[in-house]
Design goal:
Two copies of one chain form a homodimer.
Chain A: E1 3-6, E2 9-10, H1 19-23, E3 26-34, E4 37-38, H2 41-55, H3 64-72, E5 79-86, E6 103-110, E7 123-127, H4 147-153, E8 161-167, E9 173-176, E10 180-185, E11 188-192, H5 202-213, E12 217-221, H6 225-229, E13 233-238, E14 242-249, E15 252-253, H7 258-269
Parallel strand pairs in A: 7-8, 7-14, 11-12
Antiparallel strand pairs in A: 1-2, 1-6, 3-4, 3-5, 5-6, 8-9, 10-11, 10-13, 13-14, 14-15
């Protein structure tokens, strides 16, 4: 069963006047609970803090979210936690209330069904038609404005396709509906520049850091479909699933390559167990 | 006091798992209640229906929203109603649940304080820095993804400035944070094309219809700041306030002209009492 703490209260609910509902005026995080530990928790909380600062939402007191997560995980070793922070309730209208009391929701969901196709063995990916809009003020943040991802994910029902890639109207590929994108070209690991749109994933951050440790050259830059189809390797990342090598992209088959395997092995050694070869 | 019906229940609240909160996966309407009647209700319900169809959210049964609005208005002649329709609750993740039970919220807020500066006498307007992102799939709809408007409205605190104009990254002016935009150029009434972004306001719709009845030529097209500053007249529209002539735009003073006055008189005759000259 999913459990929630709303401003610390078990089984709390939300006011119809919460700005998180009214305007998507808030942020969220999705965190893997593995063997009793919240994985990459510091990275998640850092991104949330950055988001609160950029949207001028008062961040929760230090330590509070961690304590509430631990409270929910008392009887549960594995699952998926979700944090939602909104600007709180206010009168009608876009204007930010003078006295803002942010709303804090912390939930714990059952673990993802592991009988689902394992991402580590390679996934089939499609191209989405739904565009991702560009707005540098929101770029990188995991805000509650996610209708584009909802519409992107609604484009297919075929369960053999694990993810869809979304692009801007200008043809820049930004990432999957729920994952970040990487391509290997020669000796370089490239991932889309997220200065105008997209979400700055915590697994993406870890991958860029681990690649640097391994001496793999990395670059954040814009990329289009043709560059991606010409890449030596393509993989996706997600904080719940680690790395997923792409074995087909639209109609084109792709091969799982050595850099993907090296990165997965390195992540597995850092506790991302989904990347461990069975 | 604000009253809410949540799926028909008085003082209901919202589940933390509602997709309206999680993703802004829904739509809303804001409706003027004047002398016991919900103004332009048919236009609001038509826009909501269009939005539900475009987002594939099951629309409420015919007549239900009207009945719930009447229920809330039983002891209140004037106020502001709000309808929120979300895709409802679901498991975690962007994927649309197979069985969707939309969430329906209907609220009634006290009337707007009429001691506020009257829009009909002319308003001062500024330029917002926050851009409006382009996504044709969402353009025109009043979705719950409204962070851009929140950030735009947060740019100023000066109460003598009533509204801010927002533009795309390409420099197309789209409208105010909470209003649609019109300019008069020669004998023509122009308003921004909303095929790539912006909200298709019900007062905008009424204005275009009334202008056609009056024999005023109208055109929906993209416009930039320079064109707007060179216009003969500029006014904004909003379903709660009717028409607001713009008397200054950034640093530049503007004059209230005959077409604005003619349109306001015509709207006042059609029941938009805020447009009547005192």
């Amino acid at each position: 069963m999913t459990q929630w703490l709303v401003n610390g209260l078990p089984d709390g609910s939300l006011s119809p006047q919460d700005r998180g509902l009214a305007y998507g005026d808030g942020l969220f995080e999705t965190i893997a609970l593995r063997a009793g530990k919240f994985r990459l928790l510091d990275y998640h909380l850092e991104r949330l803090q950055t988001g609160c600062e950029r949207l001028a939402i008062p961040p929760p007191a230090k330590g509070l979210l961690g304590a509430e997560l631990q409270q929910l995980a008392a009887n549960c070793a594995n699952g998926t936690a979700k944090i939602i922070i909104t600007r709180g309730c206010g009168p009608r209208g876009y204007r930010t209330p003078v006295a803002t009391h942010a709303t804090r929701l912390v939930g714990l969901f059952p673990a993802v069904d592991l009988s689902l196709p394992a991402w580590r063995d390679g996934i089939r990916v499609r191209w989405c038609q739904t565009p991702v809009a560009e707005n540098p003020l929101l770029a990188g943040l995991k805000t509650l404005n996610r209708l584009e991802q909802v519409l992107g994910r609604a484009e297919w029902q075929d369960d053999t396709i694990s993810e869809g890639l979304m692009s801007t109207l200008q043809g820049h590929v930004i990432g999957g509906t729920m994952s970040n994108l990487f391509m290997v070209s020669g000796s370089q690991l490239l991932t889309p520049d997220l200065s105008r749109c997209g979400i700055n994933g915590v697994m993406r951050r870890l991958i860029l850091e681990v690649a640097a440790e391994l001496g793999i050259s990395t670059l954040e830059q814009s990329m289009d479909a043709a560059q991606l189809l010409a890449a030596d390797e393509v993989f996706l990342s997600n904080c719940l699933l680690g790395i997923a090598p792409v074995i087909s992209l639209g109609d084109q088959p792709l091969t799982i390559g050595p850099v993907s395997r090296q990165m997965m092995q390195a992540l597995a050694q850092r506790g991302i167990s989904e990347c461990a070869v069975a």
